[in-house]
Design brief:
The complex is a heterodimer of chains A (about 240) and B (about 280).
Chain A (H helix, E strand, L loop, with lengths): L4 E9 L2 E9 L4 E5 L6 H9 L6 E6 L2 E5 L4 E2 L7 E4 L11 H11 L4 H14 L15 H14 L4 E5 L7 H15 L5 E6 L2 H7 L2 E6 L2 E6 L1 H6 L4 H8 L1
Parallel strand pairs in A: 3-9, 3-10, 7-8, 8-9
Antiparallel strand pairs in A: 1-2, 1-4, 4-5, 5-6, 10-11
Helix pairs in contact in A: 2-3, 2-4, 3-4
Chain B lengths: L4 H8 L13 H21 L5 H5 L2 H33 L6 H16 L2 H12 L6 H8 L7 H26 L3 H8 L4 H12 L1 H17 L2 H6 L10 H11 L1 H22 L10
Helix pairs in contact in B: 2-14, 4-8, 4-11, 5-8, 8-11, 9-10, 11-14, 13-14
The chains are: A alpha/beta (about 240), B mainly alpha (about 280).
């Protein structure tokens, strides 16, 4: 399913409050860009259902995931939201193949069928050769591909990536980023990439939403950010 | 390369060869160790090695050994079946009122500190022919538990359960919940998360707990003899048999003790350094 993601998110935790609205079209990749602690990860945690909303509404096309006014909150496991964690979180006790088959098997797909489709995804991401190994022996870039395959294999409605390149060594970052650009094309739904790096945002995303202190401070293309930075943080970022 | 002179100086000030233990502590420490080791040495030294095979191949020994291994295995299985869920709930009880948590944890720990004989009496009062529940079992089903093999297993479950629950609870609390969150985002229901992620990740803790549980069940004496008696082939487990043999045939008692010791040491070795966090409580 390819449908527009609209997330109106309002969360308060002590002194911190996050209040942003995002709209991502199917096939579009939005970079959620901001300094550490701006609320980027919290925002996608809300969409994935890990973090509860205090107020707001999240929908994917006609499907409502959260609606605080109507008291709707779809449980995490019933959302078709693919989240690639910053630390990947590959299950250490399962083979790469079983990791990727996990989503389908959890949804009741028979073992053989889930494995077959997992293998297809591993093949698409160029890591079918690692199907039988445990994640512990993979490199950072390989782990990231497995994490992406695991999420894509569950056929999500939207795709969320939390700092997908942050866990990687500097030497491999550019290569993995280039691969990720290719791999994100395999997905036809709305995609959000959380990052604090302008180069990552530029490479991966069509559009950028800048979050600072829990609020959107600027939305536009990287070129627009470069041309007229709206805040001191954006200015310093494009000047780097 | 930077010069490390000041550091070197500081290092020479440390006393050499000793780890800072006052010499006077060595005497009581040695005594303590001797008290733990020497009885086992005596057991090995005095064991009737020549007639060991003959003693252990007697029919009543085989019977007691079979009953002990069988009942301990069964009670370990029961502890796993009902103790692991209890451990999971305890580990995830952070939202409970603290009083309630402490109370439940105290009840789980009680059999560790309770004299087993008291446990046996308590079980009689609950499940005995005139016990709180036992009277109804007797009246409705004509079923009496005390002095049966069922009673042996129940007594073992009672005394061994804490070992399993505390070990598993500690393992779950120490486990990384990030994987469970990841599993949920992939569409896994709570039970699927438990079955396919939580449980496999704490498997070492579960197996350590099960081994300790099995050893405790195997060695169980007080609650068993009180609640189940000592009928050969029915309730006379290896420890009970050992105790009774000591009066009839000391050599047989030593041989049986040796068997129990070997099993216990084997469990200890298989656990190695995997000490269980929950057990220190």
């Amino acid at each position: 399913m390819s449908a527009v993601l609209i997330a109106d998110v309002d969360v308060s935790r002590g002194d911190f409050s996050l209040d942003i609205t995002l709209r991502v079209e199917p096939g579009e990749t939005l970079a959620l860009l901001g300094p550490n602690g701006a609320g980027k990860s919290t925002a996608i945690g809300c969409i994935a259902g890990i973090v509860g909303l205090d107020a707001g509404r999240i929908s994917i096309g006609p499907v409502v995931l959260d609606d605080s006014e109507r008291g709707i909150r779809v449980p995490v496991e019933d959302r078709r939201v693919g989240l690639v964690f910053q630390d990947y979180r590959l299950f250490p006790h399962l083979s790469v193949l079983e990791n990727v088959a996990f989503g389908q098997r959890s949804r009741g797909v028979a073992r053989a069928e889930a494995r077959a489709s997992a293998l297809v995804w591993l093949d698409r991401l160029g890591i079918a050769g690692f199907a039988g190994v445990r994640p512990g022996s993979l490199s950072g870039g390989q782990s990231q591909r497995v994490a992406l395959a695991r999420v894509l294999a569950m056929e999500p409605d939207v795709l969320l990536l939390d700092e997908p390149l942050a866990a990687l060594d500097v030497e491999v970052r550019a290569d993995v980023r280039a691969e990720l650009v290719e791999h994100l094309r395999l997905f036809s739904g709305a995609t959000i990439v959380v990052t604090h790096d302008l180069a990552d945002a530029e490479a991966l995303a069509d559009r950028v939403a800048v979050v600072e202190g829990g609020r959107l401070s600027q939305v536009g293309t990287v070129a627009e950010l470069r041309g007229s930075p709206a805040t001191p943080w954006v200015s310093s970022l494009v000047a780097r | 390369m930077p010069v490390l002179e000041p550091r070197k100086q500081a290092r020479t000030r440390r006393p050499r060869g000793r780890s800072g233990v006052a010499p006077v502590l060595w005497i009581p420490a040695g005594l303590a160790l001797a008290l733990l080791v020497l009885p086992l040495v005596a057991l090995v030294v005095r064991a009737p090695w020549g007639s060991l095979v003959e003693l252990l191949s007697r029919e009543e020994v085989a019977q007691a050994l079979g009953l002990s291994l069988g009942s301990a295995a069964l009670s370990t299985a029961i502890c796993l079946l009902i103790g692991v869920p209890l451990a999971v709930i305890l580990a995830r009880s952070t939202q409970w009122p603290p009083v309630l948590r402490r109370l439940v944890r105290a009840f789980v720990t009680v059999p560790l500190v309770l004299p087993p004989v008291v446990g046996g009496v308590a079980l009689l009062l609950l499940l005995g022919r005139r016990g709180l529940v036992g009277q109804w079992l007797d009246e409705w089903f004509g079923f009496t538990i005390p002095f049966t093999t069922v009673a042996v297993v129940i007594a073992q479950v009672f005394v061994a359960m804490p070992f399993l629950v505390l070990a598993v609870e500690g393992a779950i609390r120490g486990a990384d919940s990030r994987f469970e969150v990841a599993a949920a985002t992939l569409g896994a229901s709570r039970f699927t998360v438990f079955r396919r992620v939580t449980l496999p990740l704490v498997a070492p803790g579960v197996s350590a707990g099960a081994l300790l549980c099995f050893t405790r069940a195997l060695g169980e004496f007080g609650a068993t003899i009180t609640f189940a008696g000592s009928f050969p082939g029915v309730t006379q487990t290896l420890p009970i048999s050992t105790y009774l043999e000591l009066q009839r045939d000391p050599n047989a008692a030593i041989a049986l003790s040796l068997v129990l010791m070997v099993v216990s040491v084997a469990v200890l070795v298989s656990l190695r350094d995997r000490w269980v966090p929950g057990l220190s409580a």
